[in-house]
Amino acid sequence: MARVRSVYRCTECGADHAKWSGKCDSCGAWNTLNEEPVAAAPATKRAREQARTHPAATAVRLDAVTGSESMRWRTGLDEFDFVLGGGIVPGAMVLVGGEPGIGKSTLLLQVAARLEAAGQRTMYVSGEESPLQVKLRAERLGEQAGGVSLVTETLLETILATAAAPDESDPRALAVLVIDSIQTVHTDTLEGAPGNVGQVRECAARLMRFAKERGVTVFVIGHVTKGGGIAGPKTLEHIVDTVLYFEGEGSLDHRILRATKNRFGSVDEIGVFRMAASGLLPVDNPSALFLGDREDIASGSAVCALMEGTRPVLVEVQALAARAGFGTPQRVANGIDGRRLALLLAVLDKRGGFSCADLDVFCNIVGGMRVQEPAVDLAIAAAIASSVTDRALPANAVFLGELGLGGEVRAVTQVERRLAEAAKLGMTDAYLSERAVPRRIPPGMRVHGVKTLADVLMQTIGPRKQ
Ligand SMILES: Nc1ncnc2c1ncn2[C@@H]1O[C@H](COP(=O)(O)OP(=O)(O)OP(=O)(O)O)[C@@H](O)[C@H]1O
Ligand SMILES: [Mg+2]
């Protein structure tokens, strides 16, 4: 009888352990070992013989490989094509992750419908919804989704057999397979419930093999876990060619699609969509969306131009410094790292002369953007100082700079592109490191080269009232 062994696999780093333990020996993470049954290896003498006599694989010279970059398929959903690096690569496997209800199924149904309309044969496998639910969504979207074949199945072997089988009524070879979602699919070669780490990884690996062998592009939807990873194991992200995260605030109707890994294009590109009754609509000018309505500019608001991949995006930073009620003052950061906020408050106190020791400080990036670029430092510090003094910053000014611990304003990269975007959105003044002042300045823009945070504050809100 075949013996089913099990291993304890770390959901963080994927390392296997023979015995359970509270801590992973490999990456040091706690409570991440999961028991996973492993299919018994072929143990008979004949199987061992067969393993020894495997035929050699055929090597191909790279110049003999056919196909070119121009073979990418465009969906016509421009933001989606842009994030992928210019369209869909045949035979690629793309993981689309996101929180529940963010719009993953909507996006991929729209993509499938567009590709079908462009002449590609597509198959949508739903393990979560009934055919009627998917049809109702397609009707709501108003896309020509009639030609998309729908399969409601969760067993991987059946899904692969269905995808591989020729369609009698349709002579075209399958071009795109959508799996909604990887957590519902399971294989009968492994024990364990669908969604467990072993199942997810094995199913993803088999789908990847299918994609490469047949040149079918496979889109896989993955639920984001509490920790923010897709389906727990980072290894799933290692397997696939491209990882897209679909993000957004539940209460706002815009969504951001971000590539965090891309074997066929650059990463950190973003695509911005708006969720409407008729589905996801690309947003042509994200800066206008994030800047929103800035007509009555109060104190505590500053604008920064970020680089999201190759694209500059303007965002508004809002800060509110209010007298703390009792106890330790609060620091609340939305869209930026809380530790970064603490550091900037310390720099502001020590180098800018604006102490917030007895104030609650709230800092928010408008529009639900999450900012990691240090170029936003100067805008955050300026917004806080503006709120502390209750004096508004110049209305159409953009602040670009990383702050050093000495209060010095550091240069940011790609200044010309940031300034061009700022000018396009009607900004007239820019504060940045004097060493970063570019040679070409957009017409109508005044660039103020500064050395330190104190210089910026003196030029914009004046000295602090004591
Ligand atoms: N009539 C409508 N008008 C506007 N937006 C809608 C409408 N119906 C649904 N939505 C939006 O679509 C979202 C659900 O989309 P979808 O089912 O594609 O999400 P999902 O990420 O696949 O969710 P799950 O994780 O549950 O599978 C809702 O949160 C809502 O924002
Ligand atoms: Mg869904």
Fill in the keyword field for this structure.
466 residues, alpha/beta, Rossmann fold, Ribosomal Protein S5, domain 2, 3 domains, four-stranded mixed beta sheet, binds adenosine-5'-triphosphate, binds magnesium ion
Short description:
The chain has 466 residues and is an alpha/beta fold. It is 27% helix and 25% strand.
| Total strand segments | 21
Report low-confidence residues grouped into runs of 5 or more: none
Number of discrete helical segments = 12
* Small molecules bound: adenosine-5'-triphosphate, magnesium ion
**Sheet with most strands:** 9 strands, mixed
What is the averaged pLDDT score? 86
- Beta fraction of the residues? 25-35%
The coarse silhouette is: globular
The rounded Rg comes to 26 Å
CATH top level of the largest domain is Alpha Beta
CATH architecture of the largest domain: 3-Layer(aba) Sandwich
User: What is the CA-CA span between the terminal residues?
Assistant: 84 Å
Count of all domains: 3
The helix content is 25-40%
CATH superfamily of the largest domain: P-loop containing nucleotide triphosphate hydrolases
Q: If strands are numbered along the chain, what order do they take across the biggest sheet?
A: 6-5-7-8-4-9-10-11-12
CATH fold node name of the largest domain = Rossmann fold
**Content-based structural category:** alpha/beta
Task: Provide a descriptive summary of the structure in words.
This protein is of the alpha/beta class. The chain has 3 domains: 5-52; 72-284, Rossmann fold (3-Layer(aba) Sandwich), CATH 3.40.50; 289-460, 2-Layer Sandwich (Ribosomal Protein S5, domain 2). 27% of the residues lie in helices and 25% in strands. The protein is built from 12 helices and 21 strands. Magnesium ion binds at residues 104-105, 128, 180.
